[in-house]
Design brief:
270 residues; alpha+beta; four-stranded antiparallel beta sheet; two-stranded antiparallel sheet; elongated
């Protein structure tokens, strides 16, 4: 678990499960799934016993805007006070909300689960899905969460588009740190070489990454059009490189920098 924010005063820190974003649940559940996961994660901390209602009372004097007040707040897929993006969703908030509920309800019904309408209902689904555990002890109610959250696709029948989107999110979160480590070596240690005669083993020794992680990073750069891999004068398949065999890594720094700048600007707008 990692601390994500601090409540003013002597109260405990809020905590968020490390696996929340990479698991993809943020793209499946109503918006209260995020603060609910944070609330349960906080309840898992040593020294707390009690219900989630008790924790909301302790942290927020019984009212937390992020969950719509308390655990009996209604679930929604949009934030009521957010400015609506009509370019992204020209149908408007109400129509978009209705469509999301229809999709969500269909998934849950197909899997044999009741469709939750409140945060409390959703917390009970967390227990059913194994995303949280609640145990009564002599000291009171204790909460816990597994080290790795189950994936949405393991529990619900996702459509092909959502399945592919969640896979891409997980892959990006997996490969991003590996690519960054490799790029830091190429930039900081080698001064942005246009070409580099190297091997996976050599890059692994220079970056501290396992050779297979270096392979993933190189393959991602090739997939994104930021680099080419050659053996002699012939193109090579980054995913089939032998760890000890040398290859030529040809970088397109102009493409790389343009691509990274676009990602940065996109993040600034959110």
């Amino acid at each position: 678990m990692t601390d994500s924010s601090t409540v003013p005063g002597p109260r405990r820190d809020l905590a968020m499960h490390n696996d929340w974003f990479v698991s993809g649940w943020d793209h499946v559940l109503p918006r209260q799934g995020f603060p609910l996961t944070m609330l349960i994660g906080t309840a898992c901390q040593p020294g707390f016993t009690g219900s989630l209602d008790d924790l909301v009372q302790e942290l927020f004097d019984g009212h937390w805007d992020m969950i719509g007040g308390d655990l009996d707040g209604a679930l929604t897929f949009s934030w009521p006070d957010e400015e609506w993006d009509y370019e992204e969703a020209p149908e408007g908030r109400e129509a978009c909300e209705a469509a999301r509920w229809e999709e969500f309800g269909t998934m849950l019904s197909a899997a044999g689960h009741p469709v939750p309408t409140t945060v409390r209902d959703l917390s009970e689904l967390y227990l059913t899905w194994g995303m949280a555990r609640r145990e009564e002890t002599p000291d009171g109610t204790r909460w816990s969460m597994p080290a790795a959250l189950p994936l949405p696709g393991d529990l619900l029948p996702l459509d092909a588009e959502l399945t592919q989107r969640l896979y891409k999110i997980r892959w990006t979160l997996r490969t991003g740190p590996l690519v960054n480590t490799l790029i830091n070596h190429l930039v900081d240690d080698l001064g942005e070489p246009q070409e580099l005669l190297t091997s996976l083993d050599r890059l692994a020794a220079a970056t501290g990454l396992p050779a297979e992680d270096v392979r993933i990073a190189v393959a991602e750069l090739v997939e994104d059009g930021d680099a080419r891999v050659q053996r002699g004068q012939e193109p090579a398949d980054a995913e089939r490189l032998e760890a000890h065999r040398r290859f030529r890594l040809v970088m397109d720094w102009e493409h790389f920098n343009e691509n990274r700048m676009e990602l940065s600007f996109a993040g600034d707008d959110t």
